[in-house]
Amino acid sequence: MEKSYLPYKSELTSRIALYPICKKPFEKGFKLLDEGKIKEGLEEIHYASELLLKIVLNNNKSLEQQTDKDIEKILEHNGWGTTVKTLFPMLKDILLKTFEDEGEKNFKINLFKVEINNFIDSLLSKKQIMVIQ
Question: Residues 55-72: pLDDT tens digits?
């Protein structure tokens, strides 16, 4: 049986090293999240995500202007299916929110870090197949 997979990790994916201009703000954002500075961490990750998308999609659009359709094209090109395609709208929604104190208390840092890593990996790599016997 074949099963597609993305690695589940809350440390920044090593694939981002190919894009050093994006790596530092992602690292800073992750560090701020770990320190409990949710709003500041998300602002850094927003900036880093915007840079990465501008590079990968070869356009100069802000994160707010990137469309689901643009993202889906690159994900389909990399062999990813419907489940991964739902990551961008969800992450975009999180990154565009303004977090107040109550929202910060309920924010799931590790889950978000896993999801942003999965999104980065799916943008930058072809789908991998794991064979389960």
Answer: 999 999 998 898 888 888
